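tool_call: predict_structure(chain=1)
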Amino acid sequence: MTPIRKWLAVLGAAMGSMAMGLSFSLINTNLETIHQDFGASLVQLQWMINIYGIFIASLLVTMGRLGDIFGRKKVYLIGNLLFGIAMLGAGLATSPAMIIGFQALYGISGAILLPLSQAMLVDIFPE
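tool_result:
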């Protein structure tokens, strides 16, 4: 792998990690608006926040292993696709249940992206 491709891979992994952090904070800063616009209950608002953590914590190791089995790059790209679908879906959601569902998908994509971005960096720069 050429040095430019190595650094482009680092940039891609860093951007994925930054996007995960930024998008997670978006739901927290918009809870009041979601409550007002959708009439979401307190329980639904709590699920919108907690479902991400539940899915990421329960699938983190499993998704890292899937990356080992099927190839880190391929699984990482699938994670990016799921991340995009989750963000687009949550942005276009018309009900609290849809937001919760897309937050769950977001948690699955996070469980893919977080371990694989770090594992790919170790593969690229083994020293």
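agent: The first helix runs from residue 3 to 29. Proceeding to next step.
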